[in-house]
Amino acid sequence: MISSPLDVAPVIPVVVISEVADAVPLARALLAGGLGVIEVTLRSAAALDGVRAIAAEVPELALGVGTILTADQVKQAVDAGAKFLVSPGSTDRLLDAFEGAGVPFLAGCATPSDVVRLAERGITEAKLFPAEVVGGIAMLKALAAPFAGMRFCPTGGVTAATAPNYLALANVGCVGGTWLAGVELQRAGDWSRITELAAQAAGLRGAAG
Asked: What tens digit of pLDDT does each residue of 163-182 get?
């Protein structure tokens, strides 16, 4: 089990799997590029079957499941093989389910009040979403002093160009990126391009100018 999804790689690829057959080649392409992590979002009918396939055939990958909204989805994700969980927001009921799941998680937050709710439970790692909409780098800088013990994975609107500036912040452990493995690349079977983008992302930390 991974100790924290924030410490695996500078970028967590956030992906939608539309065809189960694409799941394993996609996972292997990311791994070949040096990214040992993936977040499969529950935004398609193929998602959980894709997670099962990756868990079975690419066990060395830190396999996350995201867009989790309910306690039932928490159980489904863990049963499918998720090694960590991600949500776009958080409620007490969802946080209870996360804390009982037995795997690391990144609960979503968007406001200081959200962060206080997490901090009250002793949670010190979270997903800032949608990052660019809620203030992006300026928001993270503002949160740094009052929430010195909190680390974030900003996701939502982060790009290959802006990721290094996020990663330069002390309270950012990694970013979530959707640019690495879009559905178009999957449909084209362009695994080499995904590997190339993964390699670029793996080298992003410390690249801010």
From this structure: 999 999 999 999 999 999 99
Q: What does the alpha-carbon distance between residue 167 and residue 1 come to, in Å, rounded to a whole number?
A: 24
**Residue 127 annotated as catalytic:** yes
| Side-chain-facing half-sphere of 101: CA atoms under 13 Å | 32
Q: The pTM is what?
A: 0.96
Tell me if residue 75 is catalytic.
Answer: no
Closest to 1 (Cα-Cα) out of 101, 75, 95: 101
Catalytic residue among 127, 132, 141, 184: 127
Between CA 197 and CA 209 the distance in angstroms is: 20
Catalytic residue among 19, 39, 141, 184: 39
Cβ 182 vs Cβ 160: under 8 Å:
no
